[in-house]
Design brief:
mainly alpha, 2 strands, 1% strand
Length: 478
């Protein structure tokens, strides 16, 4: 493992093209996991405080349809941030520091342009979108208010995600975690002040989220502008580099669309859930906050292997990429098993944190019982999509997700739900789409052509024969 000496107060960063694979994956995984844990925690704090101090209707307003729309918007800039992370990680792995600098400043320009456009569109479209999702009339106006305030924090949230992706791409996983912890604590304190003390309701919860996002963005900004490393951000240097912008968009747009395949299908499912009434929407919101802790674990594995594969692809160390997949799959399946057991044992007290309504609690337990046992079915999707994206292959994984998740769930809701209009019919669409999409990803990964084509396109040395690769893996000489 190569540890780089920091200059000008820069944080030490890690080169992950050598060393023990499982250890380096976990080195990335845990800071990302803790970061997403605090991200989920402050999202959950909104729901807990609103549910306890305002009521069931307010809980449904800050979750439900607004949660699905917020996820859709977030996924767009998280995808673009992923594109910047991959491009920068490959340049860093290849020791192309000019490419690193160009990627950083192009990414910053993308934050400003895309973030502003998304803010305006989201604010203007909020009433139409929430009505189109059949949001119950008693929570429509609070939901519109919450979402419009939430969208004012788009640029800060986008900048934090882009900046933390840049830091992770060069091996600095700690500072994004520290910044998110600070942001989380600020959010919780503001939630208590604005909602529980000042009684601002859903507007207070939204303001707390926006202000905490501004805090995290400011911290990342100072980190990037004060480093002496190649990834230093200079405000006057922000501009679009055509080659880098194309590379970022080539990876980031399909990645964002892939994430939004889930969001689009979930928006349609949310519209179906809305039809079952406010109690069901509140239960769906509460379970979604608990359920989110599993997705943060699996998402941390996906982000870890994306960065790991990006640096090792840039360094042309293909055996390490394949071995990382085996390690991540084992860790992912183990995590799925633990989360399924945890929800089965503690589902009731966890749901009780959000509401005292007996009907909402029972519906939430029914949802947990039908979805929790199937978490393992999603592992292959996250890991295979992450490794292929890290190597620069983003379009085909997005198409697989579109067909296996989005199209299947949409067809399920449109054609099967009218035949059996029950919540259980909606829930079954999740495990069915997970299993089907996992099979598609497994076939795509194992046939291997995606990696050969990417190697040829980049003009890298070809993969060694499989026997030689296995020998290198066993000997530890990569």
């Amino acid at each position: 493992m190569l540890r780089m000496k920091p200059r000008g107060g820069a944080q030490a960063v890690i080169q992950i093209t050598e060393g023990v694979i499982w250890r380096q994956l976990l080195y990335y995984f845990f800071p990302i996991l803790f970061g997403t844990f605090f991200q989920q925690l402050y999202n959950t704090a909104d729901a807990v405080i609103v549910g306890q101090f305002v009521g069931t209707g307010a809980l449904a307003a800050v979750g439900g349809a607004t949660g699905s729309l917020a996820s859709f918007c977030v996924n767009l800039f998280v995808g673009l941030s992923t594109g910047a992370t991959v491009v920068l990680a490959q340049a860093y792995g290849a020791r192309d520091m000019d490419g690193v600098r160009a990627a950083v400043h192009t990414a910053a320009g993308l934050v400003l342009a895309a973030g502003l456009a998304l803010t305006v569109c989201g604010y203007a479209a909020a009433p139409w979108a929430l009505r189109a999702m059949d949001t119950p009339a008693d929570i429509l106006q609070p939901a519109i208010l919450y979402f419009r305030i939430y969208m004012l924090g788009t640029i800060p949230a986008f900048f934090y995600n882009m900046g933390s992706g840049i830091l992770r791409a060069v091996g600095d996983t700690r500072r994004p975690l520290y910044f998110l912890i600070v942001s989380c604590l600020v959010n919780i304190l503001l939630d208590v002040l604005l909602v529980a003390v000042l009684r601002l309701g859903v507007a207070g919860a939204a303001l707390a989220t926006v202000l905490s996002q501004i805090v995290s963005a400011v911290l990342v900004f100072f980190c990037l502008t004060r480093t002496g490393a190649a990834y230093r951000l200079e405000v006057r240097g922000i501009r679009f580099d055509g080659r880098m912008l194309g590379s970022i968009l080539r990876v980031g747009v399909p990645a964002g669309l892939q994430s939004n395949m889930y969001a689009i299908s979930n928006i349609l499912i949310q519209a179906a859930v809305n039809g079952f009434g406010t109690a069901t929407v509140a239960a769906w919101t509460a379970f979604g906050k608990i359920d989110g802790f599993y997705w943060m674990v699996l998402g941390a594995f996906g982000m870890s292997i994306t960065t790991f594969a990006g640096q090792n692809f840039g360094a042309q160390k293909y055996a390490r990429i394949r071995e990382s997949v085996r390690v991540c799959l084992a860790l992912g399946f183990g995590s799925a098993l633990l989360m399924s057991v945890f929800i089965a044992l503690f589902g009731e007290p966890l749901l009780g944190m959000f509401t005292r309504d007996a009907e909402v609690l029972q519906i939430g337990l029914d949802i947990a019982g039908q979805l929790g046992p199937w978490y393992f079915a999603f592992v292959c999707i996250e890991i295979f999509a992450g490794v292929t994206r890290g190597c620069g292959c983003s379009l085909v994984p997005s198409l697989i997700t579109c067909g296996g998740v989005c199209a299947l769930r949409v067809a399920w809701v449109l054609f099967l739900l009218p035949l059996c209009p029950q919540l259980s019919t909606v829930l079954v669409s999740y495990p069915v789409s997970w299993v089907f999409t996992s099979i598609l990803f497994l076939i795509y990964y194992l046939q291997g052509g995606w990696l050969r084509r990417r190697i040829q396109k980049m003009g890298y040395a070809p993969e060694p024969p499989r026997g030689r690769r296995i020998k290198q893996d066993i000997s530890g000489k990569h």
